[in-house]
Amino acid sequence: MPDFSLSAEQESLRDMARKFARTEMAPHAAECDKAARFPDEIYRKAYELGLMNLNVPTEYGGSGLGVLEQCLIVEELAHACGGMTTSVIANCLALEPIILGGTPEQKERFLTPFCAQYHFASFCLTEPAGGSDAGSLKTRARKDGDHYLLDGEKCFITNAPHASLYTVFATVDPDLRYKGITAFVVPRETEGLTTGKDEEKMGHRASSTSTVRFEGVRVPVVDRLGGEGDGFSIAMRTLDQTRTPIGALATGIAQAALDHAAAYSLKRHSFGKPISEHQAIQIKLANMAQSIHAARLLTWHAAWTIDHGSKGTLESSIAKCFASDAALHVADEAIQTFGGYGYMKEYPVEKLLRDAKLTQIYEGANEIQRTVIARELLRQYA
Ligand code: CAA
């Protein structure tokens, strides 16, 4: 069984992330949310502290952290702002295909210069028609001598307008479905690559999201990750690694909601006493605390499983799905605790509900997580 007592190094990573989140991120969270502002200066500081390329091995200039350490950091950041956290950790998602599928030469060529400076990368899998059905993607990769020509469109791509590197999934033959999917690394300056307008989002408004178009984008064969047809497995194995930190992100949002609700309940009086003395409120707070504790333990367990060499497909889907459902419910209960004030933008909890919602959708909608969980489960009974 896992032992979740944290080492001194893990404690100090968590403290560093907490300090950064509370002093640099939290004071700007409401303003960035209101204006949908991408706070470049905060992200630059996150990079300087080593918070942006958490999963990249140190030999290539990253922080070289395990999934549990990533989760400790991500929960702290998300407590301050879910949207900023999404942008800070998007490099982990975008670079994981190179870590998993790249040759040592490709890792050196792409990861080392990327990590040496403040850069963003984007993970380009989702398409307008395919959505959750990643195996049906239509972006084409046509072989042309020692290059491929990429044509197609991706949507909902985190940080795309700011990225200097894109990991792109395209098919060499759509009739082959997932067996034709192939992964490529495409630098921003490649001719024919354009990004769309920043999407106007309900939450995570400090993060940037857009489409990415590929029109005759020439990619050298040497920039293909793995062989033709290896892309779907690379994408799925990437998501196995990155869904657990989304569980941590959701847990951070939920913890912030509970912290606001509990503090408010001690100050706010009704019927002649603080509302914290009403059983109705105590039951809410107790249920919120239980959900958060369970979400954190499931997330840590998934992280521990992966850090100990397992794929963690089942555990990461359980953690992501449970924690994000919990975050939405806890944020909702925090608003209810605040009553009418909770519905007002002047108070912090309505943002948490909007931010929590996306955690149920991105990195695989929770319906997909339940599909994965059921498949993994049924395999044990077959
Ligand atoms: N690891 C390795 N291989 C895997 C795998 C995994 N976790 N899961 C599936 N595979 C393999 C299967 O073994 C199978 O290979 P074989 O035939 O050789 O055995 C192959 O992949 C096809 O598997 P399925 O039959 O299960 O494929 P499917 O078409 O039914 O789809 C799915 C499976 C799990 C539903 C998948 O489509 C999926 O995960 N969809 C969601 C995609 C997603 O998460 N998108 C979010 C993108 S990131 C984002 O949100 C943007 C952002 O910027 C934050």
Summed up, the domain count is: 3
> Low-confidence stretches at least 5 residues in length (pLDDT < 50)?
none
How much of the polypeptide forms β-strand, as a percent range? Answer: 5-15%
Characterize the overall form: globular
The CATH homologous superfamily of the largest domain: Butyryl-CoA Dehydrogenase, subunit A, domain 3
Helix share, percent = 40-55%
Bound molecules: acetoacetyl-coenzyme A
CATH architecture group name of the largest domain: Up-down Bundle
The string of secondary-structure elements, in order, is HHHHHEEEEEEEEHEEHHHH
Task: Tell me the major beta sheet.
Answer: 4 strands, mixed
Give the averaged pLDDT, no decimals.
Answer: 97
The number of E-state strands comes to 10
Give structural notes.
With 382 residues, the protein is an alpha+beta fold. The protein is 53% helix and 15% strand. A four-stranded mixed β-sheet has the order 1-4-5-8. It has a four-stranded antiparallel β-sheet with strand order 2-3-7-6, with helices on one face. β9 and β10 form a beta hairpin. The structure holds acetoacetyl-coenzyme A.
Keywords:
globular; 4-stranded antiparallel β-sheet; alpha+beta; single chain; Butyryl-CoA Dehydrogenase, subunit A, domain 3; about 15% strand; binds acetoacetyl-coenzyme A; Butyryl-CoA Dehydrogenase, subunit A, domain 2; Butyryl-Coa Dehydrogenase, subunit A, domain 1; 10 strands; about 375 residues
